[in-house]
Amino acid sequence: MLTLIIRSIIIYFIVLIVFRLMGKRQLGQMQPFELVLTLILADLATIPMAEISVPLVHGIVPLLALLVIHYVITILSKHFPKFSEIFSGKPVIVINQNGIDYKAVQKLNLSIDDIMESLRGAGYFNLDEVLFAIMETNGKVSVLPKANNTPITRQDMNIKTEENSMPITIVSEGRLIKENFQQIKVPEQKIREFIASLGVKMKKILILTLDNNGKVYFQEMHKRAKTIDTNLKGTK
Amino acid sequence: MKKFIIIIIVVLILAGAVTLEQITINSYLNEIQNKTYELITLTTGLENIQTEEIKEKVSDLKKTWIHHEEILCIFANHKDMRDLCIEIQKLEGNIEVNQYEDFTASLKVIYHLADDYHKIMGTSWQNIF
Lengths: 236, 129
Description:
Chain A is α+β, with helices and mostly antiparallel strands and 236 residues long. Helices cover 41% and strands 18% of the residues of chain A.
């Protein structure tokens, strides 16, 4: 039993490392070759985990071999578009100015219902709103709506606005996130002074973020959130 | 670059593991085969297998197997190794009751199994396909 536990732990960490090395894309939008790898990896990992007579090496070696294959395919796909086309396919226009390209849809082994489902998933319920729809290599549909159905932007209205910036987390669950200080130009001392001015102990702060307009989003544990305008400007 | 280095390290680990596996399996199984062959030649035509020399050689074969088994189990399925282990155990019992036929049969099985593992664990087209 203990052997099984130890084996499971080892396999878990090896699979985790392999997935981390394969990159973030593996977790979301998978290309066909990535999907194949994921399916094989899951199966490979379970064999030596459950069967004590199978050496652990019989699980680890194929995992590592697949990692190398994946890396080689990724590198080749990056450098040779033809190679990428073979392994991942290429995006296909399924809806154009003339409507649904039925030939393309058939070539993809899809039905019109599948296309409608994907469009609804992308937020378009009416075919008339769509100018172009492209089936991406990861199976998702990207839609370019007709001009009349595009949301009005501030640029359309000639409204000048200050550029948004990503709020940086300064305190999370009572812990000062020092790593994030590299992203803001405000000195640590100034932030500490600001936190002290709030009259709340650091460990009682649930979240505190700061954006480049000096806007602070702050929430004390078990209390309501507040937005405070400060002079702490200077995020990159 | 960091990822590339990791992949190179993984490739080296794999190459090392493959080489180590082949060297270990070849040398260990050859040793078992040689010792078994020695016993086969020694016992051919003998009626009495309860001699000191045979006992010593069987005990030596058993020791060699026990010593190598742990390493072989890292690379090979433990169930596959079990058959060979059982046959080696049988040798001592056969000497005790002076069962010449069973003794030589076990020796031949040991020789055959070691040869088989050689083929199973080695790299060949037959194994790949």
